[in-house]
Amino acid sequence: MTSTAAVDGTLHECVLEYSAVLDHFAGNKEFSEKVSAYATETAQDDQSDEEEEQEAVLYSDDLFGAIAESAPLLNKVNDREFEDVANLAVYILSLGDDSDARVEKLVTDLISLQDLQEKLVKNKKKTIKVLSIISVLSNVFNTFDSASLQKTVLAQILQLVEVLDNVSLLQPFVSNIETILLAKSSDESVREIVLKTAQLIQSEDPLGSLKLQYLSLTKIEAPTQELANNYIVNSLNTPSALDLSSVIGSEVISNLASKELLDYTNAYLYTKHDEFIQSKAPQSVDTDIVTKKNQYLTLLQIASGRESLSYKTIASEVGLEEADVELFLINAIKLKIIEGKISQLENTFLVYKVKLVVKKIESSDWKQIKETLTNYKNSLKEVKQLIDQVQNRRSKN
């Protein structure tokens, strides 16, 4: 005996509407006739004496199976109505048993029907349909709470985004990946999705890409040395990633990565330019990019605590010709790592604010940090004592 699911009048209308749309674009009534065979009407007394009898509809579980298998008919719906109709199908499926598996089947079948063998940049019609499917997948991702279904859906979205060559569509998922996927299911399949996302967004959002790589290492168990080494190399080779202290500061990464890469990164962060250029770069590291970044870090070191710097001093410290210092300073300001004013007449740079400080924390620093926290803790105790005194006075009055 098949199981049944009771659907109220409004939802029953959804089933009828979905069937009618599929019939319309199929040019026959086969689907609605098929669905009607799974429905039975039954009289049901309402609790209110003032209301008349209402009709309820019982659907056998076969209804939801039929909708899950309706992708070939759904794919015939025109582009203008497709997204709404597909979302209607997802909504109906959410009401039945085994909804996760059935929704997955529906959207998987829809994708397979698109015949996506190459990028669709020049195929406007296919592009519209794929964008609609991505929107439907987004709805599924945000509506269903199953980590397994969300992983499948995100993997499908990645596939379609790659075909469309439009990584901007991934932004909502990038911002939610840590709180949604990683919080629920941290396994190798999640790591693959996170790393694939990182790869796709690398050109448009290099720092976001690095963040995802970092999460794949630190939030998912059993990362490999290869992953750790690749992350460090990618961090070094990303022009906008200047502060890499979190790279060598991570216990997971420092325990996995090669000593050669860790030592090189440490030298990049904490030695000035004239000393750093003596360091031997590991394989795959882009020395031009890393050297330029180290020049910026050197500028920040010499600017810290100074009101002004001469072009001559800057040129000497960062290894540039004086003629190139002005453009170097302009780029540093654009990177928002330092604020100041360039004086072309006097060939000086007035330092307003150093906005990025990369400093190696020594034992003396930890002592100072501990003292600061202790003072802060004592201050909070004093504040609490004052509050208690005031409350005691009020209670006596």
From TrEMBL:
Gene Ontology cellular component annotations, sorted alphabetically: eukaryotic translation initiation factor 3 complex
State the organism of origin. Cyberlindnera jadinii (strain ATCC 18201 / CBS 1600 / BCRC 20928 / JCM 3617 / NBRC 0987 / NRRL Y-1542)
One Gene Ontology term of the biological-process aspect is: cytoplasmic translational initiation
Residue ranges of domain PCI in the record = 201-356
Which superkingdom heads the taxonomic lineage of this protein's source?
Eukaryota
- Coiled-coil region list: none
Q: Which family does it belong to?
A: Belongs to the CSN7/EIF3M family. CSN7 subfamily.
| PROSITE patterns referenced in this protein's UniProt entry, alphabetically | PCI
Q: Tell me what this protein is called.
A: PCI domain-containing protein
One Pfam family, short name: PCI
